[in-house]
Amino acid sequence: MVSRPAARFAHLAGLVLVFAFAMFPFYWMVSSSFKDQGDLLASPPMWLFEPTIKHYAEIWADQKVTAAIVNSLIVAVSTTALAVLLGTPAAYALARFEFRGKSDLWFWFISNRMISPIVLALPVYLLAQSLGLLDTHLVLILIYLTFNLPIVVWICTDQFRSIPPELEQAARLEGAKQFDVFWRIYLPLGLPGVAVSAIFSFIFSWNELLYALVLTRRNVQTAPVAATSFMSGYELPWGKIMATGTVIVLPVTIFALIVSRHMIRGLTMGATK
Amino acid sequence: MSFLKLEQIVKRFGDATVIDHVDITAERGEFVVFVGPSGCGKSTLLRMVAGLEEVSEGAIYLDGANVTDTEPAARQVSMVFQSYALFPHMSVHDNISFGLRMAKTPREEIDRRVAEAARILQIESLLQRKPRQLSGGQRQRVAIGRAIVRNPKLFLFDEPLSNLDAELRSQMRVEIARLHRDLGVTMVYVTHDQVEAMTLADRIVVLRAGRVEQIGSPADLYERPDNIFVAGFIGSPKMNFLKVSVAAVNGGAVTVRHPALAADLTLPTRHAPRVEPGEDVVLGLRPEHLSVGDGGAACLALRGEFAESLGATSQLYAQTGNGETLILQVPGRRSLAPGEGIRAGFDPAQAYLFDGAGRAI
Ligand SMILES: Nc1ncnc2c1ncn2[C@@H]1O[C@H](COP(=O)(O)OP(=O)(O)OP(=O)(O)O)[C@@H](O)[C@H]1O
Ligand SMILES: [Mg+2]
């Protein structure tokens, strides 16, 4: 038998281990972004070093990186906003209405995620080319939407189903129209699900590399594309790559932190009983 | 025409018929209670009146208009749900004013009416709280507040007190009765608690398995139950039933015989008797109409089992020779030793007879 303090210590040690394992790459990226090239390549690695913001100044001056981040922001924000705007009403319908073909529609949404993205890359490229959409924000927004919409719909449908149906009935008796019910009951009470799906959508759109590489050229390079573009040539500018990486991770983290405040449980507490 | 009229209502879920040709009416200002065992269709019936459930057959009239296919919102009815169904993300004030806001009522008017409802229900100090910060009884009041603030034509209550503890329940029962008296509105109230039914109702509708068993005032149902189901359902403790055999039928009277009865018992009948001598029928005796001793014109010889004292009254459990258990409700504290012989007297005018099909004779 392990005594309680010992068990707690083991628990804590386990947590620290997992935390360190998860956070070390970030630590490495962030710390490297403040080292100059000499310190970066030192072996054994230098744990203590003179920090420098040289690389940040460099990417700030580099039109390509700032433009890429702006592009990424445009694409990710638009995709997320559209996915939530279109996905939540669909989820409400799937959660609460009976209509013909409902389960087929449901399966169709899931099936969109069963295809490996690479399979579609070439057809989508040809399609975009013939529509004259290559190298535009719109093409990325549209293709990301096809990946994100199903996620928003699933998560929100599930969330909306957990809302007691009496709430909707009560609202209807009180004179609420269809849209009022959605806007004043389902959306606020389904906020945790909406938040989770928005985070997924944002992260996906922000990190996506394959389609961004295939469908864009010079004008609409997104951040991941810009970051990989440093990896050509003979010398790898590690400091710049790490600084770019840090800058790329920052918006997602901030977005996730803000939105996750809505991911609280027990929102429907007090409705019944 | 009645204020509310349900005409030949049928409700089917798939193949199952849960409401079977029900006719019910309610006058303006009346308090009508639906009672019946769990699953008999009380909620379904109420939800059809509200418009939350479609009617499979039949028609519903409210205030002179056929509302069978009218949208719930257009019927001007309010409903207090069994689960309260408060909006958890809104304050008490916003919960109560929801319907008024939907109707685009001016702000001052909303505040005035909410304040009025809060005063009636004594929840003025809670208006800024969220439902999760309220006790069960307070949530109940908020749900009622949401219902009364719009001045609806009809109030529907679906077992509003079933989640409360006994004390709060009787307190709220009194408040609902007061509310009905003060507002003078028509209320339809669903419960499976016959005490609530007896105390609140102007008229009780007893339902069983989707059919109406009897409709009448509380006194009607207590004194003149149409059948054995209503007789057993109304009254607490439950009516005692003894299987007796018919010795003679004589015009408007039936004479019955039972080994525990000191003498054959002749009872007047309410309807022309449909029984033959030799047939088995059921004798119904309410526990509160039985007394210990030979008092009363008729008398049963019983063997004691045990007694339960409730303070002011005691319930005595005793058996007949062939093992039928009867309950006697007697005043004061009284003990009963197992096997002790007791005599239970009663007045034949307070005895009931039911034929083999359970209909009152
Ligand atoms: N949506 C539905 N689909 C199928 N059957 C249903 C549905 N709603 C209710 N029923 C059935 O209809 C019958 C009546 O249900 P109802 O809820 O009206 O009973 P009740 O009298 O209110 O019972 P309780 O006292 O337990 O609330 C039950 O047998 C129930 O199983
Ligand atoms: Mg019910």
From TrEMBL, chain A:
Specify whether Secreted is a keyword of the entry.
Answer: no
Note the superkingdom of the native organism: Bacteria
Q: What is its main location?
A: membrane
Keywords from UniProt, A to Z, are:
Cell membrane, Membrane, Transmembrane, Transmembrane helix, Transport
Q: Where are the transmembrane segments?
A: 12-30, 73-94, 106-126, 138-160, 181-206, 241-259
Q: Please name the SUPFAM superfamilies in this protein's record.
A: MetI-like
Q: Does the keyword Membrane apply?
A: yes
Look up and give the membrane topology term. Answer: Multi-pass membrane protein
Where does the UniProt annotation locate this protein? Answer: Cell membrane
Q: A GO term (biological process) for this protein?
A: transmembrane transport
Q: Where is the ABC transmembrane type-1 domain?
A: 69-259
Annotated Gene Ontology cellular components are:
plasma membrane
Q: Which family does it belong to?
A: Belongs to the binding-protein-dependent transport system permease family.
Under which name does UniProt file this protein? ABC transporter permease
From TrEMBL, chain B:
The source's superkingdom equals Bacteria
Database matches in CDD domains: ABC_MalK_N
Q: Which SMART domains would you find in this protein's record?
A: AAA (SM00382)
Which residue numbers delimit the ABC transporter domain?
A: 4-234
**Which Pfam families has this protein been placed in?**
ABC_tran, OB_MalK
Reply yes or no: does the keyword Transport apply. Answer: yes
Keywords attached to this entry: ATP-binding, Cell inner membrane, Cell membrane, Membrane, Nucleotide-binding, Sugar transport, Transport
InterPro entries according to UniProt: AAA+_ATPase (IPR003593), ABC_transporter-like_ATP-bd (IPR003439), ABC_transporter-like_CS (IPR017871), ABC_transpr_MalK-like (IPR015855), ABC_transpr_MalK/UgpC-like (IPR047641), Mo/tungstate-bd_C_term_dom (IPR008995), NA-bd_OB-fold (IPR012340), OB_MalK-like (IPR040582)
Entry similarity comment: Belongs to the ABC transporter superfamily.
User: Which NCBIfam families does the annotation name?
Assistant: PRK11650.1 (NF008653)
Protein name as annotated: ABC-type sugar transport system, ATPase component
Q: Which organism is it from?
A: Chelatococcus sambhunathii
